[in-house]
Amino acid sequence: AAAAGDAPAAERRYAEAIEIDPYRPDLRMPLAELLVARGDVGAARAQWELVVAMREEQMPGAGADAPEGEVVIQVGGGGGTQHTWSLDELQAQARKRLEETASGVK
């Protein structure tokens, strides 16, 4: 939906996915950017703060066959695409965005 230019629909989809699995920083980061785009910096900062507060053992797939510090997400069921991301990298991005928006909280 975001790629198609439908930011409100994309925001709803991210929020729904986060409601199902709240420990997905890979969903919270793009949601935060959508919130910033519509001017809700405070809500975006809340998403980034949640990402920063997450612990690796909370992540989906914790203890699975992922390299240390990374999480593998299977998208689309058994035959779906695998996405690998690092919690440390997403937390670093979140910290950076918190710093960048510290003076622009609405």
Overview in brief:
With 106 residues, this protein is mainly α.
Give the SSE string: HHHEEH
Count of beta strands: 2
Q: Any idea what the radius of gyration is? A: 14 Å
The N- to C-terminal Cα distance equals 26 Å
* Helix residue percentage: 40-55%
- What would you call the shape? globular
Report the sheet with the most strands, covering strand number, pairing sense and barrel closure.
2 strands, antiparallel
Order the strands across the largest sheet as they lie in space.
Answer: 1-2
Description:
With 106 residues, the chain is mainly alpha-helical. 51% of the residues lie in helices and 11% in strands. It has helices at residues 7-20, 25-37, 41-53, 87-100, and strands spanning 70-75, 81-86. The chain has a two-stranded antiparallel ribbon with strand order 1-2. Strand 1 and strand 2 form a beta hairpin. It is globular and about 35 Å long. The two termini are 26 Å apart.
